[in-house]
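Review box. Two proteins, two foldings.
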Amino acid sequence: MLAAIIEVIDRVNRAVGRTVAWLALLMALIQFGVVILRYVFAIGFIPMQESIWYLHGILFMAGAGFTLMHDGHVRIDIFYNSAPPRTRALVDLGGSFAFLLPICILTFVLSWGYVTNSWRIFEASTEISGLPFIYLLKSMIWVFAFLVGLQGIALAARALRFLRGEVDDYAASADGPGIET
């Protein structure tokens, strides 16, 4: 059952991550267009400039679960990498329940008023010709908390499967040994 849960969560974050990764290319193309308009034609186009901020926020907030799935987040560890697999699994299991999941829940709960107030007034850019979708961008906080929380569950489930002896090799990431991807 844990293997099926891990697979579903990984599939969701893999699909989201691969989709939002294309936003990096789109951001670069739009930024190129902004530079050409500004420095070649002396034209400033605020919606294009703001769209880069939106895409950047979406890329990082929605892609955070995918990054966690591939163990790509910065980790301050002196002993973790050289620790035996059982110790790493215990650290991942404990860290998921003691830190990662509570932080995701707190992020969602504490951002509730911030995001709902933005939706209540359909918050828009302070620039006259700016994009009218700040409320949608702020909603990405919830997407972040949800996707990272889901991946935290998968991380804990991977550790639990290893500790139970259901898999022989342990890796926290979805692309590690002994983990079905």
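Next protein.
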Amino acid sequence: MAIIIPFPRERCRPAQPTPPGHKGKIIPFPRPAAAPAPVETPKAGMLRRERTPRTGKNVLIAKVKIAQKQLGMPDDVYRTMLWINFGVSSCTELDEQGLVRLVRHFRSKGWQDKPSMKKDRHGKPRCLKTGNHPGARVMARIGALLAELGNLRGDYVPWDYAAGILKKHTGLDHLEQATTQELNGVMVALERTLNSERRRI
């Protein structure tokens, strides 16, 4: 398609003979821009819900809700208890340390939460049962420190935690592979962590 530009007749010259092999200049007509493709919106029921990251605070809030339900505590009694002991009307207003104290309060009322043992990849060292490891006593002390640390945090602290400390300092993967001196280093690191957790409360 070409654009025909009209001129006044008085300015037009008579047609001149076209030399052989000459081609006329054609001005192409601009094509309209293509319309953008319509954006498809997902139908109802097809929207994916974004999962809330499972942080330590979310785990503690879930425990509080479970404890309230298992103890049979009505909402009004629950909110009154929060206001008297913590000065808040909802557990979501508490920080992580406040939630730990709230979980501890429910435990004092008789609530017992089941530890999540599935998180423990290493598990309890076998030499604690047989006693054939020279550092068996130190391992028993490490187990007690892990349990105490779990009580402070309001969650189960697995043996993986101690194995991770050992791997960081010595490169060994399992506690059974460590010497008594290396196990003492793990015990000292756990005692420091425990004292730090106590100061935060």
